[in-house]
Amino acid sequence: MHKQMIQPKVTLVGAGPGDPDLLTLKGVKALAEANVVLYDALANEEIMNHAPQNAIKIFVGKRIGCHEYSQDQINQLIVDNALTYGHVVRLKGGDPFIFGRGSEEIEYVESFGIPTFVVPGISSAIAVPAYQGISLTKRGTSESFWVITGTTSDRDLSKDIALAAQSSATVVILMGMSKLSQIVTLFQKESKGETPVAIIQNGTTPNEKIGVGTIDTIQEVVVANKLSSPAIIVIGEVVKESNKLKGFYEEFLSKEIIS
């Protein structure tokens, strides 16, 4: 009789960029009603405290060099748990639809006739620069911004970066640290060597690290500051105009003059 009462449904929830306070109220409510939570490698697992203590919690995330489950297995886990237990919350870092494969999961779940809901999350592409006072658009400086994955599903550099380098837009690159030298080369080809760059590691978290420079110098900055993934690369004049980063740039420019 219990199984007849089960009403399967799946809610994709964006966990935000790392700061647990950036989880939306709607996300908190969805977690509070979860029977099962399938969660990624979250920047802050405090978010899991919003789920009921007796909810089943399954880690399905991917860490460098360690994939607990393939995407096909994750899709099947979502369906199996929804049919068995009822409400499944699929908790994903950032926003589920920004390089998160959320649409693939929704399509698979709905093919079984299971109702789905999406709770958008605050994307790291916007929040991480904002925490450093970087306005991705600014009147008179940047009319638009690109958000690009640095590494495609084929492990290649995205071809869109070469196009973005030709524009005057702010360019935000996720998952691009392993391709930094190639990115630098593309911007140098467009005579953008002096364009400001900020690299922000573990953005919005207590262990956040940042390095600033230009296209020509950013690789040296990465080495000096021991920056690595996960990090966001922000390229554009708006980086230099951040009040929070002015001190970094004044120090950087004074070193350039001395050298």
From TrEMBL:
Its EC number is 2.1.1.107. Pfam families: TP_methylase (PF00590). PROSITE patterns: SUMT_1. Pathway: Porphyrin-containing compound metabolism; siroheme biosynthesis; precorrin-2 from uroporphyrinogen III: step 1/1. Transmembrane segments: none annotated. SUPFAM superfamilies: Tetrapyrrole methylase. Keywords: Methyltransferase, Porphyrin biosynthesis, S-adenosyl-L-methionine, Transferase. CDD domains: SUMT (cd11642). GO terms for molecular function: uroporphyrin-III C-methyltransferase activity. GO terms for biological process: methylation; siroheme biosynthetic process. InterPro entries: 4pyrrol_Mease, 4pyrrol_Methylase_sf, 4pyrrole_Mease_sub1, 4pyrrole_Mease_sub2, CobA/CysG_C, Siro_Cobalamin_biosynth, Uropor_MeTrfase_CS. Residues 9-218 form the Tetrapyrrole methylase domain. Belongs to the precorrin methyltransferase family. NCBIfam families: cobA_cysG_Cterm, PRK06136.1. This is uroporphyrinogen-III C-methyltransferase. It comes from Flavobacterium laiguense. The gene is cobA.
